[in-house]
Amino acid sequence: MYGILTIFRKEMGDHFNSLRFLLISALIVMVGVIITSMVGMAIREELKGMAKPTLIFLLLFTSTGKLFSFVQFIGFFGPLLGIFLGFDSINRERISRTLSKLVSQPIFRDSIINAKFLSGVAIIAIILVATVLLISGLGIRLIGVVPGAEEVSRLVIYVVISLLYISFWLGISILFSVIFRSAATSALASLAIWIFFSFFVSLGASVLSDAVAPVSQTASGVDAEMLMRHERVQRLTSLVSPMTLYSEATTTILDPMRKTTRTLVLMGPLERFSMSRFQSPLPLLESLFIVIPHIISIVAITLLCFGICYFVFMRQEIRTV
């Protein structure tokens, strides 16, 4: 434990003193403030002269405005935060020949990899919490609504899910930093994985669903059963991407009116009438039950990624100089 704390403090100091940390933090805060300002002013204009409804505060994070929502911004660009924090965490020490000096100290070898990962997680948590608090304060000033206990609880769960999600990408970048000696190579490999999950998984899901369950327009209309099969194949394939897991989980948590993570539900007239009679927000516990599989999946892939990173690092040969 002593070795972990020592390296943890050293890594935290390196992060806070690095220009990279300042630039990333400033970018996230700047984009968050711009999105919140646009959304907040739009909400204020729409609610002028009206009684403010409940759970309106969460729209600051989920409303798209003219660009995109804050949730979408973190879902797409959040992985870059984890990648930038960890792509050179190990090979930088190897290139500067300080890794062998660390190993020669009276600390356990696994303390190095554990402390580097935990320091990255701590930095991510600090940035997320600070940004959410800043957006919340700005939102209170703009729309004049103080969030209730349930809204605060949903925001806390959102921050936890976002922390787990970005920590997965931190583990990916540290893994490539362990495998490759060049920091540029590990950064490119991490970015390649990010691009693959961002663009090609959704494209592959669309192609696979068209091949397995093609939807054709007939004289009688679209076959509902084939359409549902098409959407089911596309949905299951897209769940391979951590971005899909994160997007569905956070959207469901921050939108109490959302009853399911699915985007397509075919309903008849009676079903639509029944749904219109029960348009009430879900309690937090029920929303949490809906996204529990997504949260467990994000936790599992994060632990699996760091476990592989830990295993590879512990078996590598580190030559002393």
Describe this structure in words.
The protein has 321 residues and is mainly α. The protein has one domain. Helix content is 74%, strand content 1%. The chain has 13 helices and 2 strands, in the order αααααααααββαααα. The chain has helices at 2-17, 19-46, 59-62, 70-86, 91-95, 99-103, 110-143, 149-179, 183-212, 224-238, 242-254, 269-277, 284-315; strands at residues 217-218, 221-222. The chain has a two-stranded antiparallel sheet with strand order 1-2. Strand 1 and strand 2 (221-222) form a beta hairpin. Helix 4 (70-86) packs parallel to helix 8 (149-179). The two termini are 26 Å apart. Residues 264-278 have low confidence and may be disordered.
- The amount of beta strand, in percent, is under 5%
Low-pLDDT residue spans: 264-278
Number of discrete helical segments: 13
The termini sit apart by 26 Å
Helix content: over 70%
Helices and strands, in N-to-C order?
A: HHHHHHHHHEEHHHH
Provide key terms for this protein.
single chain; 321 residues; mainly alpha; two-stranded antiparallel sheet; globular
Topology:
Elements: H1 2-17, H2 19-46, H3 59-62, H4 70-86, H5 91-95, H6 99-103, H7 110-143, H8 149-179, H9 183-212, E1 217-218, E2 221-222, H10 224-238, H11 242-254, H12 269-277, H13 284-315
Task: Give a short summary of the structure.
By secondary structure, the chain is mainly α. The protein is built from 13 helices and two strands; from the N terminus they run H-H-H-H-H-H-H-H-H-E-E-H-H-H-H.
